[in-house]
Amino acid sequence: MIRRADYAPPAFLIDSVALEFDLAPERTAVRNTMRVRRNPDAAAAPALALMGEQLEFVRASIDGRVHADVRVNENELTIDNIPDSFELTIESLCNPAANTTLSGLYVSSGNFFTQCEAEGFRRITYFLDRPDVMATYTVTLRADKSAYPVLLSNGNLVEQGDLPDGRHFAKWEDPFKKPSYLFALVAGKLVVLEERITAGSGKEKLLQVWVEPQDLDKTRHAMDSLIHSIRWDERRFGLELDLDRFMIVAVSDFNMGAMENKGLNIFNTKYVLANPETATDTDFSNIEAVVGHEYFHNWTGNRVTCRDWFQLSLKEGLTVFRDQEFSADMAAGDTPGAASDAARATKRIEDVRVLRQMQFAEDAGPMAHPVRPESYVEINNFYTMTVYEKGSEVVRMYQTLFGRDGFRRGMDLYFQRHDGQAVTCDDFRHAMADANGRDLAQFERWYSQAGTPRVGVRTSYDAAAKRYTMTLTQGYGEASEAARATQQGPLLIPVSVGLIGAKGADLPLRLDGEKEPQGTTRVLELTGREQSFTFVDVAEEPLPSLLRNFSAPVIVEYDYTNPQLAFLLANDSDPFNRWEAGQRLATRELLALAGRAAKGEALSLDDEVVAAFARVLDDETLSPAFRELALMLPSESYLAEQMSVSDPAAVHAARVFVSGRLAAGLRQKWLAAYEANRTPGGYRPTPEDAGKRGLKNLALAYLSQFDDPADAVRLARAQYDSADNMTDRSAALSALLMAGASAKGDATAADAALEDFYRRFENEPLVIDKWFALQATQRGGPNRNVIDIVRRLMQHPAFTLKNPNRARSLIFSFCSGNPAQFHAADGSGYAFWAQQVIALDALNPQVAARLARGLELWRRFTPDLREKMHEALTDVASKVKSRDVREIVEKALA
């Protein structure tokens, strides 16, 4: 167990690193020459201890002479009898071809790649592999020229040339100090799309996107996204690209989405490659966001980095916030107005949906931890939704409290103080506080307390005095034991509110003691366990609009009636709360139906729910993208988490019933929406066109859930056959699979389309990932057992467990994305899960640990399911060897 409280500065510092690689798949030689000195700010140490894993030590030299006082074990190299300042050279060997963990130096498709975050550099060479040891790097790569014509590393290319025996070399220098986790090298047969731009300072910059030759035609969108990211960071934060060259490289074998190595970002192909035939609207959007995210790390993560891994959200939470703001601004365009505001709000809703479905669940389970964890066994397990998504919400609260200008002042002061340093979350908080003249000591609890806060709301209206009082309380409700252990006191919670009159208009807001009204949305700062806020001159009893724009990552508890929720859905000026009202209405009805389904009672749907959906569907003043989100039912996983005892079968029955009822009751409206939202002409991945396609394909999905889905099958077949883009083609295939599972459905059309889809795209790995995922997440039926289909697909020639994308597309999609089938009453899903966790643990512990989290909430399920989950967890605990998976299952079982 590693604890934040035990942090101590490194006993030694490394000022410069010169790395020389002789690259060979099974035996790569690494010569590492470092300038080392004792740290005057740390306790003295008698020896230098360097981390190293899966390395073969050759020799060590100090100041040019072989040094014999060296001890080597499995995870460390210790050097005794050393001076205070010296040049240390270590020679070692590694085997990249055998490295299935994809951490350190490894081989993919015959090319060399690295992944060093968090602790992969120690698999490349012996080193002080911790983020607070920052050095400048010079890297020389040597390799066979015909096999590896491209040799890349961080920084600027300073020399290259040919060597004897058909080999060549390239020498790179990175002028900026960086921690070892930001090191990268790439070598192989790659081609490049490049473009030169002029930065705001007038300096020319070379931008490159490197891919395998067959993928060059799929790089334009990534390049455009990079250019947009650079321009946005200059405009919004005054931050300019600091290198002469910036490179993106795509690799198909990658544990993460991408990595922000200084100047040489290595990406999963999923977040680089796109053209209309192979990528969906979601893919185009995700590429823009991830390219932006990794580029923004150049400042928030690279120029200013983490002191230790407990501060991970310092870079990740902040950079997620930045990429969310970037994506929202890109969707909104340059012209302010209602359409721009709607596009920005749609992005906000999408981000909150992810947070509430995934991070809130994490907060409720045994892996609950603060944004800044206090301890860990394996740091890879803490690349979590809490660190990233809740961390971004914590950063967003600074902007909510201080506004855009105040947030920018805080960012400017942060860089002024800490450029080139490894710092902490507290350093960021202090910069925000000092730049805005505020005491944010209480705000620190957002970093140190786990769990999802609950804000209770009580209201009262004095008609005679025209005073409306809102009383807010805060607490954590029935938080998990892991969360309760961290809680210290009340938080500073910004609660953004509005008041809506009987005619649906916002009322002006004047708090008691103020001279004039100040707008129609106000941010109330809740700092105590209970606080009251009184608005004056309120001419009529209003309906409160609470937590506008989701101003804090909390759960609001206010007992709206169904008619009030329908009113908010129709009238709230805050788009997020308009969407939220519809989700609350649907969730309330679905949970009630699930309760009846669990008892075997007959199901019926309140006509007001159908009418509320109809009003949204008919309201053409709302953007198609917003209507799509508002008309989506809450997911089965989210609904199950809202139950005191999760019953996936009951939730599935309720959701299928409601979907069918909405499909039947609004059939003509769905058909009309389908026709009205076609996008004639060539494919464009614009927010406007993507919104129309989204609403059209949602209509098709509802139609496919009608008892007699003949219309849906007809439309889906025609759409599949005529589609000129992957969004429409994959949506049509999904609809055919859904229609095949309905009461009067026939899977013949779906099976034919699946066969055709594979034949069309068998040479496009990312598209075949979609083919696997669609089958793993299909609804299935009495004669279509999805787990049997998944098991058969694991034997397919295109499937391999070694590729993380392929494993995620089939195994993760089934276990995480198909709760009704995964949680089968016979426990077959859990047995399958255990088999795959154990198999992956032997290949790639990081990926295995992600899958292992699928059962961490096992105690919340029905007794029969709970017992079978416990058996599966116990089986995994007895067989896995990695600390990655052991930490997960031991916490789940504790």
From TrEMBL:
GO biological process: proteolysis
EC numbers on record: 3.4.11.2
Domain Peptidase M1 alanyl aminopeptidase C-terminal: 564-894
Cofactor needs: Zn(2+)
Ranges for domain Aminopeptidase N-like N-terminal: 83-182
Domain Peptidase M1 membrane alanine aminopeptidase: from-to ranges: 222-446
Keywords, alphabetical: Aminopeptidase, Hydrolase, Metal-binding, Metalloprotease, Protease, Zinc
InterPro entries on file: Aminopeptidase_N-like_N, Aminopeptidase_N-like_N_sf, PepN_Ig-like_sf, Peptidase_M1, Peptidase_M1_dom, Peptidase_M1_pepN, Peptidase_M1_pepN_C, Peptidase_M1_pepN_C_sf
EC class of the enzyme, as a word: hydrolase
Protein role: Aminopeptidase N is involved in the degradation of intracellular peptides generated by protein breakdown during normal growth as well as in response to nutrient starvation.
Listed Gene3D superfamilies: 2.60.40.1840, 3.30.2010.30, Neutral Protease Domain 2, Peptidase M1, alanyl aminopeptidase, C-terminal domain, tricorn interacting facor f3 domain
Name of protein: Aminopeptidase N
Family: Belongs to the peptidase M1 family.
Annotated catalysed reactions: Release of an N-terminal amino acid, Xaa-|-Yaa- from a peptide, amide or arylamide. Xaa is preferably Ala, but may be most amino acids including Pro (slow action). When a terminal hydrophobic residue is followed by a prolyl residue, the two may be released as an intact Xaa-Pro dipeptide
Pfam families (UniProt xref): DUF3458 (PF11940), DUF3458_C (PF17432), Peptidase_M1 (PF01433), Peptidase_M1_N (PF17900)
Domain (Peptidase M1 alanyl aminopeptidase Ig-like fold) ranges: 451-559
Gene Ontology MF terms: alanyl aminopeptidase activity; metallopeptidase activity; zinc ion binding
